[in-house]
């Protein structure tokens, strides 16, 4: 630029251009590699942390596991580890920015001298104002994270218990719960976004003020002439300065977020681990006499509670002994097994366990994968042992029925298997594992009596005859066969001895009868077993359609226009002010005051428009988030049950966690950048063309080439991001699955194998992330090269132009803008690619917004009278049910009547359609043909809520929600405390709860984990007692309850529901023999429907079932039958 002051020295000019080329090339290459390498090391950090959290989760002690729920652990992996992956890049930004600052200030002093001093004052002020801003933003962010955790925890719990929510028709209550949690989250989100608008205002304000102040300084100190050279050097330098000034606070706030994530990760990584040190000896060798030995053991789950869970336990179990543990609900039977496993914290005493352990938990834990994977559980395949394991666990028939045999896929949490199948797969896994000691926690509760007998005789007594077995059971008929029985009561072993001894001591050794619990979802196994729907991903160019959807869905087209308008005004003002400088320098007698004054007047207002632009952006984003979230929640809560049975929970959760947070934070700002930067680029090229039109010869081809390169990149990048979307879910699913089955994994000593499998999943995820990063840098390198061509051409043209062809002012103007061209183009490319990747999240959320809904909750014209059903008479008329439009019928034309006030028992083998009948009654599935009429009203004509509020059910799997006892019994808040206490008294929980310090407000942890299965079952009974409906359905609710409690339960139901129609789905003859009517189903057909006494006299299927039941129970059957009938 100084070349024009004296003689035109072409050589000097060309050498400057040469340096320019060199500087640009070095700059471009080094920056790309810095970005790429820092991202790569970030990726390594992220993977390492994800793996560290995972391996820690395998080691956490029980109390630490209560502190970190499954949802939280998913969050540590999905959010915090990812954030730590961004750390290296920001770390380098935080030291390179200050260096850039210092260099820029150095140049300023070099050009302007002392005049630059006043300019540092506003710079400092702007820098300092940024600090409290970053603090406030940080605070908002932290609060946002906390409320997001809350929401995800509760969403995950709701999705896992969707079945019960639908049966009880509590959707509105839980939907409101999620929406309120989200509203709280939005408060912090909006604060964060509006703070961003302020900081962008500051960012644009500072260069304008600083440049004006520097010019005034020049004029006052006369330290440099106010000519084109000085003015444009100052402007370019200040433009370089503003970048670090803006990045430093941003880097600080990211570092603070990293610190928050760091602390959260620290909390789990340093939390209490299971200590194998304090006398919990597990030796693999079989050196000692006893297999298991506990001396004076006291164990406690919760360090805060007063009395230990298990007191004064003394146990000696010899090799090969079979021990049964029985006792009432909540006596500590499962805790005893945990003590042997070393899962429960020990206060005093010693535990010695030698040999390897296999464990079968009470609530079955099945991984998603094939049946074979679940049974092998990482052991190599040994055909003979495998076939044998399947046979003794009575799985051979089921596997024959599955569509793909033992290669049938099992859905997440074993969703397409019924309870009995899951339980037997678990048992087969234990048998195949060939351990020394077997701990079986009530493994027969989920199967019918006949199967239970087969399992006990073939599996426990035959296949495991040389093994040591500790069996927790409620089934008394097996007790006579074991070597030793332990009777437990409230945490103590009260009696031990063999069957005869215990009988002679005259204890209340009741006849416990085995139960069968069958899963509600009897998917007709023969045909429907690939239930997992594959996760769909759109292919090809989403492009503008999804983008338009986003804008129209959040009704933001007006907002977008305002944003573009604000940006245009901003660019116009900025350009006008620099033009004024370029032209004003040429006017000979223009005073410095006028020059600077007009410049300031034009450029100050521009920053106001930037502020408006950011504000509109924030509002656009908030609107979008709100619109998508509410539609998504509505769609999920209105989805039919079939959707939840075929969609893994993890897949729904990624939509509301990672995809939603992209909608919250990333999309609005990227839309603004993509829409507004082109205005700047066009202006820059416009100015260059205005000064030297010849630039067009290079600029136009360069733009076309950039567009082409970008299209070439986009095709691969889009699919990479899409595939990456589907590799992230398995990482999350696997982690949450592990966290549910930690006890089993540790018992089988399989932690290492799970760890290795997780490493593979993390690596797959990382590979894709790595590739999309490489592709991005590849693209930017090429675009930078093309844009640098334009800049260099412009510089060459200015030097080669004849003297006086272009005025010095315009030369300065053209070059100062040309230097920002590359930056602007790169910035735009990066954000454009980001936006196209982010938009995929919108597309993924939209997939779930358009789910088919179930029928309406309330039909206005067809509301049943409030007293309905007053009698409780149910007519089934030629009822046919299928689960999917083209699937085979599960119920094939059932016609019968349940009279008002009668007790009806429904029996039949596994898969006969008993649970489907219940689903039909609650309209979880709509009838394909035929009707269900209750008290003369067809239930398909009314709304679902009206129907489900009037029916009561005690489901198979007792579900509790995190909260208090009150919210669990009465989520809708319809009853007084008085009513609740009465209900608790009737269902035998009153004394337990009145001993708790907070009474009805006592806490219930995730999925009711701090109450035993039997107690949870009693809570479900309490809910029913509160509702007092005329129709009650018992879905084999007595599977995990000891017989004493069971007797009470049956008595309460008899007394309280004497007037009501009670339908019991059972496999247990005793529960049904005293019913008024018995209904026998077989393969979806009604075989018999009559009074039990009549059916017993003929050669009916019912009498066959009864005979089979007693022969399997073996002893004293005749006396029992006569006792039951009297």
UniProtKB/TrEMBL annotation:
Domain ABC transporter: 292-515, 876-1108
Broad EC category: translocase
Keyword Amino-acid biosynthesis belongs to the record: no
SMART domains, per the entry: AAA
Keyword Transport (UniProt): yes
Catalysed reactions, as listed in the record: ATP + H2O + xenobioticSide 1 = ADP + phosphate + xenobioticSide 2
Bilayer topology annotation: Multi-pass membrane protein
Keywords, in A-Z order: ATP-binding, Membrane, Nucleotide-binding, Repeat, Translocase, Transmembrane, Transmembrane helix, Transport
Gene3D superfamilies referenced in this protein's UniProt entry, alphabetically: ABC transporter type 1, transmembrane domain, P-loop containing nucleotide triphosphate hydrolases
InterPro entries, per database record: AAA+_ATPase (IPR003593), ABC1_TM_dom (IPR011527), ABC1_TM_sf (IPR036640), ABC_transporter-like_ATP-bd (IPR003439), ABC_transporter_C-like (IPR050173), ABCC_6TM_D1 (IPR044746), ABCC_6TM_D2 (IPR044726), P-loop_NTPase (IPR027417)
Annotated localization: Membrane
Enzyme Commission number: 7.6.2.2
Record-annotated ABC transmembrane type-1 domain positions: 1-257, 562-824
SUPFAM superfamilies with a match to the protein in the record: ABC transporter transmembrane region, P-loop containing nucleoside triphosphate hydrolases
One Gene Ontology cellular component annotation held by this UniProt entry: membrane
Gene Ontology terms, MF aspect: ABC-type xenobiotic transporter activity; ATP binding; ATP hydrolysis activity
PANTHER family: ABC TRANSPORTER C FAMILY MEMBER 8, ATP-BINDING CASSETTE SUB-FAMILY C
Similarity remark: Belongs to the ABC transporter superfamily. ABCC family. Conjugate transporter (TC 3.A.1.208) subfamily.
Entry protein name: ABC-type xenobiotic transporter
The species this protein was found in: Cajanus cajan (Pigeon pea)
